[in-house]
Model the fold of this input.
Amino acid sequence: MRSIWRGAVSFGLVSIGVKLYSATEDKDIRFHQVHAVDGGRVKYKRVCSIDGEEVEYADIAKGYELPSGEVVILTDEDFEDLPLSSRREIEVLEFVAQDEIDPIMFEKTYYLEPDGPAARPYVLLRDALENAGQVAITKIAIRQRESLAALRVRDGVLVLHTMRWPDEIRRPDFAFLDEDISVRPQELKMAEALIGSMTAEFDPGEFTDDYREAMTALLEAKQSGGEVAPPAETPDDGAAVVDLMSALRRSVERARGGAQDAGAASPDADDTDTGEDAAPAAKSPAKRAPARKTAAAKAPAKKAAAKKPAAEKTTAAKKTTAAGTTAGAEKPPAKRARRSA
Done:
């Protein structure tokens, strides 16, 4: 890793020299814009909108447009003259509990490494933060931009999370927040049961970027000239479920691996739904009934077949041909067995 910032953590009268490293990296597959005919890179020229001339990169400055349309031009020298006390210093402002910081404020994460002989004060601050169970609120300036930052410990290393300023967090101004929307107690219990059945210890290694893997396979197939395998089809769950209670119940059954577990833990057993939910319970006894009937009819069927005249045998044969199954042939003997009994 290459450090992107070098300075010191100011902790009271203690100054700890540190180097800053990006803790994350972008794994997205990047593409260039190319000419579709020959694959040549598409390039863009920096052209001035006033004189139409191409502008060299060294002649480009930053401009801020005023409401009147006028442009204020700032050079690198102007930015250097700005008073940024946190330019080379991470100033510790206060210590807070980590759960007091809303994750929406976090922006980017960095690792801090002790610089030179600063290892001992670095370890001192690390151990003190860990023992106190708190995080340090700091200020840091990176690339001419000052940010709030949270300093905490992770795997024995000081980690810095840059944060948004409070006025950068948007307020969710949605109409439904002003509406009086209520949910049924049974629905709430079923939703809580679904959450309980899906609760697990978070292991980020269990999750993969399916899109990136598919894109990598596509690029490899294109490169080797082989065929591109089609993506796996998602199983169809049937018609869309419009009833919220039915959707929750089916979700619990799927999460727990079957209707038996979900039915045993269902908090609203008295709540009735459409026939779609009741169907699985009725199928089980229906399958056992034909098996008992066939087994009971086997012995008497042979005796009755020997006593019937030829006309009835012909009729039974016709029924067998029409049905196309052996079950149709066994049905008439079963009835005759009951009459003879």
Strands lie at 5-11, 14-22, 62-65, 71-74, 89-97, 106-114, 134-142, 145-154, 157-163. Residues 1-24+72-167 form a domain with the Ku70; Chain: A; Domain 2 fold (CATH 2.40.290.10). The first helix runs from residue 76 to 80. The longest strand covers residues 145-154.
